[in-house]
Amino acid sequence: MKIRPYTNADRGRLESFLRRQVTFAAMNEQTPDAFCLENVADFEAEGTVSLLAEADEGVVAIADLLRRHPVDGSLWLGLFVVDERFHGNGVAQILYEQLEREQMLPHHSVFRLGVLPHNERAYRFWERQGYVYEKDSVTARGDAVHVLKKEGKA
């Protein structure tokens, strides 16, 4: 699988991917269309590094990174979504390890992310990656999240 930067030419493929993620959209209390619109806008906004992970099947995952948070200075993984077709088979693990190695560690050694409180599966996944609970917070959209933190290898 290859992880590469998103470009505006990828918009149709990104939209198709996002509309297939009905479980993640529902967890965010959004319709697939609303989930798609919000995340396409985030991908096309300045200030973050937006990435696509591709395989023969097309786009299999997306990630959006804020390389240096203006308040805490750490790298934030704002979004990491693996296509629902690949849940439970190790693809997320492989992709996250590649993402961390290629896109995160070269830029920072402290990583943070937010997990929705009711997303226990994601919480367990991030714990397996070495993240630990830091605090509760609220996103810019007004969602309560558990902030998890990981000290990367320098």
Strand segment tally: 7
Helix percent band: 25-40%
Could you report the average pLDDT, rounded to the nearest whole number? 91
- How would you sum up the global shape? globular
Structural class: alpha+beta
How many angstroms separate the termini?
25 Å
Count of alpha and pi helical runs: 5
| Order of the strands making up the biggest sheet | 1-2-3-4-5-7-6
Textual characterization of the structure:
The protein is globular and about 35 Å long. The chain has a 7-stranded mixed beta sheet, sandwiched between helices. Helix content is about 35%, strand content about 30%. α1 runs antiparallel to α3 (about 30-45). With about 150 residues, the protein is α+β, with helices and mostly antiparallel strands. The longest helix is centred in the middle third of the chain and has 14 residues, at about 90-105. The chain has helices spanning about 10-20, 20-25, 30-45, 90-105, 120-130; strands spanning about 1-5, 50-55, 60-65, 75-80, 110-115, 130-140, 145-150. The mean pLDDT is about 90.
Task: Give the gist of this structure.
Helices cover 34% and strands 32% of the residues. It contains five helices and seven strands; from the N terminus they run E-H-H-H-E-E-E-H-E-H-E-E. Strands 1-2-3-4-5-7-6 form a seven-stranded mixed beta sheet, with helices on both faces.
